[in-house]
Amino acid sequence: MEGRKKMIIDAHMHLGEDLMFNSNDNEEDILRYMDENNVGGCILQTGLITCDSKKANERIYQLSKKYPGKFWGILAISPYLNEEEYQNYVKWAVNDLGFVGLKLHTYAFCCPPTSPQAQKIYSAAEMFNLPVMVHTGNGIPAALPSLVLTPAKEHPNVKFILAHSGNTMYAQEALITAQECHNVYLETSWTTVMDKKKFVDQLGCERLMFGTDLPENCSVEIFKYKIIDLDEYQFNQIMYNTAKTVFNLK
């Protein structure tokens, strides 16, 4: 374990106000947890529900400009925008802010991955060559991991990331979904040590990526991976390389 010095990328973190869970992680909180846990890169998204989505996403951009190569953004906005509004938002986020992915938050917007409203997200992902992170776990039935099966099969060139991998209760369902679709990846925050070991053994480390969701959860998530006896390649793949590849990070 002592030789594992490669940079950790946290594939799932929030910045700013979240009116759904009444949280508000600021820049200082983010930088502090990264420094304390040797996290060298962080993929950020706004809070689930915000007062000003445009301003919230610009805040992520400002942090990424201040610390080049350390922060990247995922666009998480309402799927209930009309097609033109959504596409224009994505174009702005990619071209002006340099964002590297899209988010479908099935829980916050009560929008299952199979809904007509979600289709615009997949179309934008294909157009801009972006991965799509989908919230799974809390918020069922909209957040069932298996609901990603249909869009993943209909859009084989889009990489789908199951945020939280079903969040323990539906971890087995998330695993089966990834086994069924080559373009489905698992972000494993909040899953148990046993879940993580099963993912490694039955799916492989190339389809797994490290994520935390909350600054306070980071050291716990790192520790879970440290106790399941990974070799150096497996550890670095999960903690760094999968996210780097899927999000096409420079």
Summarize the structure.
The protein has 250 residues and is α/β, with parallel strands linked by helices. It has nine helices and nine strands.
List the helices and strands and how they pair.
Layout: E1 8-18, E2 23-25, H1 27-36, E3 39-46, H2 53-66, E4 71-75, H3 83-95, E5 101-104, H4 119-128, E6 132-135, H5 149-154, E7 160-163, H6 171-180, E8 184-187, H7 193-202, E9 208-209, H8 218-226, H9 232-246
Parallel strand pairs: 1-3, 3-4, 4-5, 5-6, 6-7, 7-8, 8-9
Antiparallel strand pairs: 1-2
Strand order of the main beta sheet, please? Answer: 2-1-3-4-5-6-7-8-9
Strand content: 15-25%
Helical/strand content category: alpha/beta
Total helices: the number is 9
Mean pLDDT: 94
Cα distance spanning the termini = 26 Å
Order of helices and strands: EEHEHEHEHEHEHEHEHH
Helical percent range? 25-40%
Q: Major sheet: size, sense and barrel closure?
A: 9 strands, mixed
Overall spatial form = globular
Low-confidence stretches: none
Give the number of DSSP strands: 9
Give Rg in angstroms.
Answer: 17 Å
Description:
The chain is globular, with a radius of gyration of 17 Å. By secondary structure, the protein is of the alpha/beta class. It has 9 helices and 9 strands. The two termini are 26 Å apart. α3 (83-95) runs parallel beside α4. It has helices at residues 27-36, 53-66, 83-95, 119-128, 149-154, 171-180, 193-202, 218-226, 232-246, and strands at residues 8-18, 23-25, 39-46, 71-75, 101-104, 132-135, 160-163, 184-187, 208-209. It has a 9-stranded mixed sheet with strand order 2-1-3-4-5-6-7-8-9.
